[in-house]
Amino acid sequence: MMEGAKPPKLSHVAIIMDGNGRWAKSRSHLRVWGHIRGSKVVTDIVEEASDLGLHELTLYAFSQENWSRPVHEIQTLFSLLRKFLLRERTKIIENSIRFRVMGDISRLSPETQNLIRGLESTTLENSGLRLNFAFNYGGRSDIVETFKRLDKREISEEELGRSFDIPNVDLLIRTGGEMRISNFLIWQIAYAELYFSKTMWPDFTREEFRDIIQEFFQRERRYGSINAARDWDYSRKEARKNKELFNH
Ligand code: FPP
Predict the structure, then answer these.
(1) Is the C-beta atom of 42 inside 6 A of ligand 1?
(2) 19 Cβ inside 6 Å of ligand 1
(3) pLDDT tens column, 31-71
C-alpha cells in the first residue's frame, strides 16, 4: 500500500443470491423449496448487514430473465417477497432501515405493490442501512431508463453516474458457484471488488458474509493503474497528473 493511501471504503454491498434451485434439487426437493429456504437467509443477511453498520445492501431478488421460469416458480418468488415484507416490516422500521425496491413492480399484485410503496415511504427518512431489493430489474434497461429520464442528447459519465437510483457498488458477492454478472447493476460495479462463493444461497451464513467482508479489506484496490493508491479520489488525481505529463 502506498504511503498516505487510505484503506478501501466499504459502503455498498450487492449480492446475487444464486443456487436455490440446485440446493433444493440436490436434496430431492422442488426448486421452490430452495427459494423458501433462501428467503430465510435474506432475513439473516439483512440483519447482519444492519448489525455491522453497513451503509447500503442491494439484493437481486428477481431478474428480468427470471420471467422464463415456470409460472408456479415465479408465483412463489412473488409470494415470498410479500411474505418477507409482512414478516420483516416491523423489524425494518425498528432498526431504522430504509427500504426500496428497484425495477418494474407493475406485475406484482396490487396488495404487494401497496406494501412496497407503503414501506418505502414509511422508511424514507430512516438513517440506518439502505436496503434495496432489485426486483424485475435489469442493468442495461436501468442505464437506458435513467438516461431517458434525463431527457438529454449528450451527457457526461459523472452526470449519468449521479443519476442512478442505486449508487456505485464496493463489493459484489455472487453465491452458487457461477462466475457471471447476469445483467445486475452493470454500471455500478465498474470498480467493485467481485467475490464468487461456491456456497448455494440457502447455505449462506452470517459468518461467511463477515468473512467475505474481512477479505474485502485485505484486498488491494488498484482501480486499473499500476501502484495506484487504494483511494479513489487519490488515484483520480494521479491519473489527471499523468495525462497532463503525457500531453506535454
Ligand atoms: C436464484 O436461484 C435466486 C433467485 C432467482 C432469486 C433469489 C430469491 C430468493 C433468495 C428468495 C426470495 C426471497 C425474497 C425475500 C424475495 P436459482 O433458482 O437461479 O438457483 P439455481 O441457479 O441453482 O437454479
Answers:
(1) yes
(2) yes
(3) 999 999 999 999 999 999 999 999 999 999 999 889 999 99
